[in-house]
Amino acid sequence: MKKMMLTQYGSVDVMQMIEVDIPKPAANQIVIQTAAIGVNDPDIMIRANGPFPTMPKEIKPVLPHSLGQDFSGIITAIGDDVTRFSVGDHVVGMAFMSAYSEYILLDESAVVATVPKELDLVPLGGFFLGVATAYGATIRDGQAKSGQKVLIHGGAGGVGSKAVQLAKNAGAYVIATGSAEQANYMKELGADETIDYQTEDFTKLVSDVDLVVNLTGPKTLENSYQVIKKGGRVTSVNALINQEETDRRGITGIYSMGFMTIEELKEVITLYSNGKLDVLVDKTYPFELEAIKQAHLDFEAGGNTGKKIIVFSK
After folding, report:
1. Which of 6, 98, 107, 127 has the largest CB neighbor count within 10 A?
2. Domain Enoyl reductase (ER) spans what residues (predicted)?
């Protein structure tokens, strides 16, 4: 089988395609034939610069290693002790640093769940990481509820688009920031209001917000504290919370991590299956080295609306 590997960090040219044997499962393992994978910020950053300094030792990759987070696929083999899955199951989940591969080997206990077989596996390849990050920032840590006013920065991106939908499903009044070109898309996702971050100052347009979900970096986060009502919350996925500022204003700030339990994953799969959560596919790329390089370059160029997906041949 083909597998993409890194032996050093740097430009897209450090990625190499190698041939290895299809893995065989131990008693408690499953083998998944990969259908599609998402192109995600952690893969770009790790490929370019190596592991994040804040990564826990137990998940910090060591060269040589692959890349890849979320995936969809079909189970082709299971170990003798596996009870949660059967051969032929369609699944989605998380495979840290091992999804850039035609087959994925995981423990049965991994955060993986079955999906109805009638669902298209291509968009589901980019489902987990964006939804997990959005779920953590909006629902688990953000505690979005019916009747609240929620401001989501970066509402058209791979994570932001899920955050808008999750907040709306929770019954919140949703305000989303993005470009003018993304306004209609964010409204289609469920945003009640949109703000053009390029020409409008959100601090002059919103106030008394119950929750701010920050997906766009430290500068936006620093400007967001002032629009949150006392007792409100702010979550951030890519910039650290200023604890002194949140304490001074009487608000709760949480640096939110992109993970889900198996039960949470099943919950959002149900939303997706019922048409209440969508994954917009921006562009697809075949699982070939030059195409993977181009996917990384396109992602790095910015202005991402929806997900870039790498698709494996059947």
Report:
1. 127
2. 10-310
